[in-house]
Design a protein that fits this description.
The protein is α/β, with parallel strands linked by helices and 476 residues long. It contains 17 helices and 14 strands. Strand 5 (172-175), helix 7 (183-196) and strand 6 (200-202) form a beta-alpha-beta unit. The chain is globular, with a radius of gyration of 21 Å.
Length: 476
């Protein structure tokens, strides 16, 4: 377990910022992908896995949050905490929805709150309340009685405390990834969500990418046959941004490379593949084995680009330049995860899914399915758009915002669920599952790749099929 892993510093040591993270956020359990043999082997796969036998599931302190709908409301009232790179841009997407009102904004850097407040007024809404009196002023925002939802776009160090505070004050909360950095904190968020009856969600935008949603629907329609393997990643050269004096204030993100050796950012790759395989909705992840390369990239970049005397010269980097993890599910499927932000590499999330009838691979998108394709030649993934594009992408063909529109699709859908009183597409169990590789990959690398048990955060609810991102369009 990760209780012995390096602990994050207090939020007061992250300087005076809640600058937003860069990048940010299942499917209908119609497994249509599972054979009788796979189903009969499921119990044995869980029971026989040595890592899974070692994990202890704490007693549930509340009722499950699986399939729990939001309260229906005509207007969704939002508070935004963290107005840096991420939060400062995402506010525009909340303001684009006519049934959403931004009631309050928070950041210890007052200039950021003033710019955000000006955006709210320019959108025709009343001026929001501003919270800029230090790093703890978010607590006062969360105490407001006129908020339904708190959006957190702050450094990773403080996600847990802020999400906890929001729920204890009766607010649903959405958090940029990763939602917490230790197993202990992930379990506490699960327990708090169940006890407070408030949803605590990892806002994994990549789950709402057009390609990801198309593959999801194709998987549920049985186009890949019985699912066997998938892969996801965050391979993104961030060296120039991590050494920028302004982009990551602190610089909080680079400092995590001095604390942990494992996969610091698994969610973008893990979330979509978990959706394809109905993780927490008929299958679950059981264990993770991780391996890491030497940590050389950041030190080499620093030597070439940073002047003598720069504060970064006091740092010793231990984060593996590339981590590779293998995750096994109860049904015996395998998911490969990768993380590399320290070496030259074109952007890729890999985003692959394979089954007994063929395979999809992204970056670039290509597909090979029987009987549609033959001769060992990749087929045209775009040919499947008319039949399998998700209704959200058909309804919003050219969405505004960043990351190809998936940020807007995510916010639109979440706010729609809150307005109509629907079950959210993902919940606290997904948040904990998608983030668990952060501490567990660190532990596995330290143990020379030994498997680490991934807890069953659902406490058995994973065995029940339920809806997710592959959702039906609401009536009316």
């Amino acid at each position: 377990m990760n209780d012995n892993a390096p602990q994050p510093p207090s939020r007061r040591s992250v300087l005076r910022t809640t600058a937003g993270v860069a990048g940010a956020g299942i499917g209908l359990g119609a497994l249509g992908t599972g054979s009788a043999e796979a189903a009969s082997a499921e119990a044995a796969a869980v029971a026989e896995h040595p890592a899974d036998q070692a994990v202890r599931t704490p007693r549930r302190r509340g009722a499950t949050m699986a399939n729990v709908p939001f309260e229906r409301r005509s207007t969704v009232r939002v508070g935004i905490v963290g107005l840096g790179n991420r939060g400062g841009g995402m506010i525009d997407l909340f303001l684009a929805l006519p049934w959403v009102r931004v009631v309050a904004v928070c950041d210890p850097v007052r200039d950021k709150t003033e710019r955000a407040a000006a955006k709210v007024v320019a959108a025709g809404q009343p001026a929001p309340a501003v919270y800029a009196k230090g790093e703890d002023d978010y607590e006062n925002l969360c105490k407001r009685s006129d908020l339904d939802f708190v959006y957190l776009a702050t450094p990773w160090d403080v996600h847990f405390e802020m999400a906890k505070t929001a729920m204890l004050n009766g607010k649903h909360v959405g958090v940029e990834c990763p939602i917490a950095m230790t197993l202990k904190d992930l379990w506490e968020l699960v327990d708090l969500s169940e006890q407070t009856r408030r949803h605590c969600m990892q806002l994994e935008n990549c789950c709402y990418g057009r390609n990801e949603m198309r593959v999801l629907r194709m998987a549920h329609a049985g186009k890949f046959g019985d699912l066997l393997h998938g892969a996801g990643a965050y391979n993104h050269d961030l060296r120039d941004l991590m050494f920028s004096p302004t982009y990551y204030e602190g610089p909080w993100r680079r400092l995590w490379h001095t604390r942990l050796r494992g996969d610091l950012y698994p969610n973008h790759g893990f979330g979509p593949v978990a959706n394809y395989m109905d993780v927490n909705r008929g299958d679950r992840v059981v264990s993770i084995s991780s391996f890491g390369t030497p940590a050389l990239g950041l030190a080499e970049y620093r030597a070439e680009h940073m002047p003598p005397g720069d504060p970064s010269w006091k740092e010793s980097y231990i984060e593996s330049d590339r981590t590779i993890s293998l995750v096994q599910t109860a049904k015996g499927r395998v998911i490969r995860l990768e993380h590399d932000v320290s070496t030259p590499h074109p952007y890729s999330r890999i985003n692959s899914l394979g089954g007994t009838r063929g395979v999809f691979e992204d970056y670039p998108a290509r597909i090979y399915l029987e009987p549609d394709h033959q001769g060992h030649e990749w087929g045209d993934f775009g040919a499947y758009a008319p039949e399998f594009d998700h209704w959200l992408w058909k309804e919003h063909a050219n969405p505004p915002g960043g990351h190809g529109g998936m940020d807007y699709i995510m916010i639109y859908r979440l706010m729609q669920c809150m307005q109509l009183g629907l079950v959210p597409d993902f919940d606290v169990y997904d948040a904990a599952t998608w983030t668990a590789p952060v501490p567990l990959s660190h532990d596995s690398i330290k143990a020379k790749g030994a498997p680490q048990a991934i807890p069953d955060f659902t406490r058995g609810e994973w065995k029940r099929a339920r809806t997710g991102v592959d959702s039906a369009k609401p009536a009316g």
